[in-house]
Write a structure and sequence with these properties.
By secondary structure, this protein is of the alpha/beta class. It is built from 20 helices and 18 strands. Helix content is 49%, strand content 15%. It starts with 5 loop residues before the first strand and ends in a 6-residue tail after the last helix. About 2% of the residues have low confidence. GO terms for molecular function: ATP binding; sequence-specific DNA binding.
Length: 455
C-alpha cells in the first residue's frame, strides 16, 4: 500500500517537527511535517498515511476534532495524539475517538518509533489475515468441483478469469454435472462475494408464482397479498442472482427478464414505483439454448443477453479420467474408516458405467453403497445399491448372440477396456500404453479408431 512507510507530523513546535522528523526518516519512514491544521489539510488530500502524529492543541484548531475527521474520512489511517497538557480524561477521550495511542510530552523519539512499528505489525497481520481468508474462500469454492482432466482444468481457469468481472454467465450441462457448484464458485471469487447469492429454480414454479418470486408484489396486489413482498431481484441487489433451469422459463416471463437485463430495473406486481438493482445474472440450462432459440422455444434476444460468457460442463462419460479421483473423493466423504476401498471388480464396474445422472448419480451411488457396506473395509459388487450400475455388468454378456459379428464384439470390448485403463491412469497415455503392452503410437491409433479423443 502507498501509506506503508508514510507519516504526517502535525505540531506547532518546530523542534519536535525537526527532531522527530529526522529520527523517523533515519528509520526509513517518508515524513511530512505541518505546523497547523490548515497546513495539514493539503497533505491529507494528496497522500495516504500509515499514521498521523498530531498535537492536541494546535494554533488554528482542536487536534481532537482533527482526529475525528481523519478517522471518519480515512479509517485505515492510524492517529497518535501527543500533548503537554495530558489528563486521564483527555487520554480516554482520544482513545474512544479512535486514536491508536496517546503520548505525553516530553517523550523520547524512540517511543514514537516503537508505536509506529506496532502499527506496521498490526496492519501486516490484518493484511495477511485478509489474504488468507481470500485464499481459503477461493480454495473452498473451487475444491468442491472435482476434476483433473484437461476439460475441467480449462473450466477452472475460465471461472477464475471471468469471476472478477460483472459479465452475465450461462452454464450449460446435463443434470448432475455441477452447474450450481460452478455458479457458487463464480460468486465467491467475484467482487460481489460479500453480498448475497440468491438462487432461483425456474422449473418448480408456475408462470404466476414465478413472476411473484422474481419481482415481488405490493400489499393488496392480489387476494392473499397481506403485505409487501420483495422478489429475488431485490434480494440479490449488490450480489448475484442464479437462475437455474432457465430453459424452462415461461415465454411471458422471458419478456420481463429481458427488460431487467437491459435496464436493471422493474416494478413489483401491483406496484408503480420503478426499482433499480445492481445485480449479476448467472443462469444455467440443461439444454442448448441456441438450438431452443432457433426453434422458437426461447427468445433469441434473451439468449444473447444471458450468453455473454458460456461455460459448458461435460457429462461424466466424456471425462472418464476424472472417475477415479471422484470416487476417491466421495469415499473419503462418506466412509466410516480411512482404509475403506472398492475391490477390483466393483471399481471396474464403476469405471465402465456411463453415469447418465453424472456426478450427482455417482455421489448418491457411493453414499448408498457405503451405507449398505456398513463396517466392511472392502466394498464389493454385492454392496452396490444402484441397480442401473449393477445391470451394466450384464451388458457385455448380452452381446454374445448370433446376431452380432465377432469383430463387433471384439471392438466393443477393446473400446471398453481402453476407456477403463485411461480412467485408471487418469488420462496418462504413456502409463496406459505400458499397462496395455503396446506402444504410445499404437495407443493413439486405437483411441482415434474408437473416437476416444487421442489428444
Amino acid at each position: 500500500m502507498t501509506w506503508d512507510m508514510t507519516v504526517l507530523i502535525i505540531d506547532d513546535e518546530q523542534t519536535i517537527l525537526k527532531t522527530l522528523g529526522d529520527e523517523l526518516f533515519a528509520e526509513g519512514y517518508d515524513v511530512h511535517c505541518a505546523g497547523s491544521i490548515e497546513e495539514s489539510v493539503g497533505f491529507l488530500q494528496r497522500n495516504n498515511y500509515l499514521c498521523v502524529i498530531s498535537d492536541i492543541r494546535l494554533p488554528d484548531g482542536d487536534g481532537m476534532e482533527l482526529l475525528e475527521a481523519i478517522k471518519r474520512d480515512r479509517p485505515d489511517t492510524e492517529v497518535v495524539m501527543i500533548t503537554g497538557y495530558g489528563t486521564i480524561d483527555s487520554a480516554v477521550a482520544a482513545l474512544r475517538q479512535g486514536a491508536f495511542d496517546y503520548v505525553l510530552k516530553p517523550f523520547y523519539n524512540e517511543e514514537i518509533v516503537c508505536i509506529l512499528n506496532r502499527i506496521r505489525e498490526m496492519k501486516q497481520l490484518k493484511e495477511e489475515n485478509t489474504n488468507l481468508k481470500k485464499v481459503i474462500k477461493e480454495r473452498i469454492s473451487l475444491d468442491r468441483i472435482i476434476g483433473k482432466s484437461k476439460r475441467m482444468q480449462d473450466i477452472f481457469n475460465l471461472i477464475q478469469t471471468v469471476a472478477p468481472t460483472d459479465a452475465n454467465i450461462l452454464i450449460v450441462g446435463e443434470s448432475g454435472t455441477g452447474k450450481e457448484l460452478v455458479a457458487e464458485a463464480i460468486h465467491h471469487l467475484s467482487k460481489r462475494k460479500d453480498n448475497p447469492l440468491i438462487k432461483m429454480n425456474c422449473e418448480v414454479f408456475s408462470q404466476s408464482l414465478l413472476e411473484d418470486e422474481l419481482f415481488g408484489h405490493e400489499k393488496g396486489a392480489f387476494t392473499g397479498a397481506a403485505r409487501r413482498k420483495p422478489g429475488r431481484f431485490e434480494m440479490a441487489d449488490g450480489g448475484t442472482l442464479f437462475l437455474d433451469d432457465i430453459d424452462d422459463l415461461d415465454p411471458r416471463v422471458q419478456v420481463k427478464l429481458l427488460r431487467v437485463l437491459q435496464e436493471r430495473e422493474f416494478e413489483r406486481i401491483g406496484g408503480t414505483d420503478t426499482i433499480s438493482v445492481d445485480i449479476r445474472i448467472i443462469s444455467a440450462s440443461k439444454t442448448d439454448l441456441r438450438t431452443a432459440s432457433a426453434e422458437g422455444n426461447f427468445r433469441t434476444d434473451l439468449f444473447y443477453r444471458l450468453n455473454v460468457v458460456p461455460i459448458k460442463l461435460p457429462p461424466l462419460r466424456e471425462r472418464r479420467e476424472d472417475l477415479p479421483v471422484l470416487i476417491e473423493h466421495f469415499l473419503k466423504m462418506y466412509s466410516k474408516h480411512p482404509d475403506v476401498h472398492f475391490d477390483s471388480d466393483a471399481m471396474n464396474l464403476l469405471l465402465s458405467y456411463d453415469w447418465p445422472g453424472n456426478v450427482r448419480e455417482l455421489e448418491n451411488t457411493i453414499e448408498g453403497t457405503l451405507a449398505v457396506a456398513g463396517d466392511a473395509e472392502v466394498v464389493t459388487l454385492h454392496h452396490i445399491t444402484n441397480d442401473a450400475v449393477v445391470r451394466c455388468e450384464a451388458v457385455p454378456e448380452e452381446q454374445y448372440n448370433s446376431s452380432l459379428a465377432l469383430d463387433e464384439v471384439l471392438n466393443e470390448y477393446e473400446r471398453r477396456h481402453l476407456r477403463s485403463v485411461l480412467a485408471m491412469t487418469e488420462g496418462k497415455k504413456s502409463k496406459a500404453a505400458e499397462l496395455l503392452g503396446i506402444s504410445r503410437k499404437s495407443l493413439w491409433q486405437k483411441l482415434k479408431q474408437h473416437n476416444l479423443d487421442p489428444e
